[in-house]
Amino acid sequence: MKDTREKLLKTAAKLFAQKGYTGTSVRDIVQRAGANLSAVQYYFGGKNGLYLATVAYLTGQIRAEMMKEMVLPQEISALSREQALDSLKQMINRFLDMSFSRKNILLERIFTYAELEDSRTFRETLLNQTSRFRDTWYGLVSHLTGLKVGSAELILLCHTIFSQGHQSDFMRFAVCHQLKLKKYTPQLCDQIKELVWNNTRAILDLYNKEKK
Question: What residues does each domain of the chain span?
Fold first, then answer.
């Protein structure tokens, strides 16, 4: 029974990413998953429940990858500056690794469809599901800059730093085309990581100087 639920989630993730919520039917999902229509009702209470569970499933995987082997104190303020910098760097590099390997592509496409379908409920669901690692990210940047959690400046700064790690399909295609590569090489990935971290460190150092 656990296998059936897992198959439904994996199949739904692919179809919601390909066609969006409105373009995907429960019948398509169960046929591809080799399950019965009643299974969706049994496990998820219907299509809407399956969609929400799929988002939670994908974000859970990303969150686990982002936070893997990271041990943080209950209060981030207890970290030294170097410890906080190291933790933030780990999160940035892991996010980049997911972008390079396209591990987060299904969730990205589901989010894009939520925008196209103009579904505020689905957008808010996606944002709420990412809140755990986002709160850690915000906490680390707040600790390193002195900016207040929840302030407009901190939110904008975090999104600016985070957006450097966004490697969309088109961006990968454009970079490879201009560099005459078939795909991202390990050397290119390392170079991007270094550039992103150097940019991030320069911003954080600027705030640190202002605090002093």
Answer: 2-211
167 close to 51: Cβ distance less than 8 angstroms: no
Tell me the three state secondary structure of residue 164: coil
Using a 10 angstrom Cβ sphere, with 0-12 exposed, 13-18 middle and 19 or more buried, the burial of residue 57 is buried
What's the pTM value of the predicted model, to 2 decimals? 0.79
Q: Where are the alpha helices (DSSP H) in 68-148?
A: 81-101, 105-116, 120-129, 131-145
Residue type, 191: Q
Which residue has tokens 């919601």? 16
Q: Which residues are CB-contacts of 31 (< 8 A; sequence separation ≥ 6)?
A: none
Instruction: Name the residue with tokens 């450097």.
Output: 164
Q: Do the beta carbons of residue 84 and residue 144 sit within 8 Å? A: yes
CB 119 within 8 A of CB 21: yes
Check: CB of residue 110 under 8 Å from CB of residue 179: no
Q: What is the CATH number of domain 2-211?
A: 1.10.357.10
If you write DSSP's letter for every residue of 8-77 in order, what string do you get?
HHHHHHHHHHHHTTTT--HHHHHHHHT--HHHHHHHHSSHHHHHHHHHHHHHHHHHHHHHTT----SSGG
Tens of pLDDT, residue by residue over 5-62, are: 999 999 999 999 999 998 999 999 999 999 999 999 999 999 989 998 998 898 888 8
Rounded to an integer, what distance in angstroms lies between the CA atom of residue 206 and that of residue 113?
A: 37
Please tell me the distance from the alpha carbon of residue 133 to that of residue 4, in angstroms, as a whole number.
29
